[in-house]
Amino acid sequence: MAQTSSLLIALKKALKAHGFTYADVAKHLGLAQASIKRLFSQENISLNRLDQICQMMDLEISDLVRTMTEQQSQLQQLSEAQEQQITNDIGLLLTTVCVLNRWTMAEIMDYYHLKETECIQKLAKLDKLKIIELQPGNRIKLQVDANFGWRENGPIQAFFQRTIGQEFFNSQFNHEDECLVVLNGMLSSASNSEFQRKLKRIAREFDALNQEDANLTLQNRNGVTVVLAVRNWRNGLTQHLLKVK
Fold it and tell me: Is residue 132 part of a domain?
């Protein structure tokens, strides 16, 4: 499944680079655009259809696999010590989040109280961590893989859980750009695993949309935080009523 996801990420990037849209793919395959979106979101594209899409771009499937391999050679995760280094410096953490969202150095300094020398120092540290390549003119080239993520239960996740949890949920979630869904049910282990797999797919779709919008100006993008979580949990207020604990 991981290889399929990586291959489809490479395919989406290739389509965008060649100026093709889902509508173009739908027309080429003789399918509805909604069907194409579903094939991508469900990661359910047959080898024959994959070959047809590649032909649109005058590519071979082997070219796509080569692109995928090149992407996978990029940084996918930091070590625990490296994450701890970032969390120990709030300015460095802020700069890291910005560059991962493809901000320029000028944009970082326009939005935050960071002097040029300080910002360059932060970027130099990220260059040393292989997150970016700091190029002449202080241009930033992102060096992370499309599937880059923070360590599960690592320092970065712990930092956000510790410092942002209460602030994040201090909202009525009643604006157009907000949404809160709370579900409660009784699932088997198999159904729980299936639901978690779908949540991870949604997370990959979010990453793909984030990458697609990366070339838009900051004025046309807003910071969005999504929390996806599943656990075996009973409300603490009812614990004293349980016969089986």
Answer: yes
Phi then psi for residue 144, to 5 deg, are: -95, 155
With contact defined as beta carbons under 8 Å apart, do 101 and 210 qualify?
A: yes
Determine the pLDDT at residue 242.
62
pLDDT at res. 237: 62
Distance separating alpha carbons of residues 159 and 235, to the nearest angstrom:
24
* 117 strand-pairing partners: none
Residue numbers of the domain that contains 30: 2-72
Q: What is the pTM of this model?
A: 0.58
Per the structure, the count of domains in the chain is 3
Q: Residue 235: what residue type? A: N
Q: Residue 30 in 3-state DSSP?
A: coil
- Residue 87 · residue 156 · CB < 8 Å: yes
The answer to whether 68 and 7 have CB atoms below 8 angstroms apart is: yes
Are residue 136 and residue 194 in the same domain, yes or no? no
Determine contact, residues 139/126, Cβ cutoff 8 Å.
no
Helices (H), the chain: 2-17, 22-29, 33-41, 47-56, 61-72, 80-87, 90-100, 105-111, 116-128, 155-163, 165-168, 189-212
Predicted confidence (pLDDT) per residue in 52-100, tens digit: 999 999 888 888 888 777 665 556 778 888 899 999 999 999 999 899 8
Distance CA 109, CA 111 (A): 5
Block means of pLDDT (10 residues each) for the chain, length 245 residues? Answer: 74 87 92 91 88 91 81 70 91 92 91 92 92 92 77 88 79 89 89 91 84 83 86 70 60
For residue 22, what is the domain's CATH number? 1.10.260.40
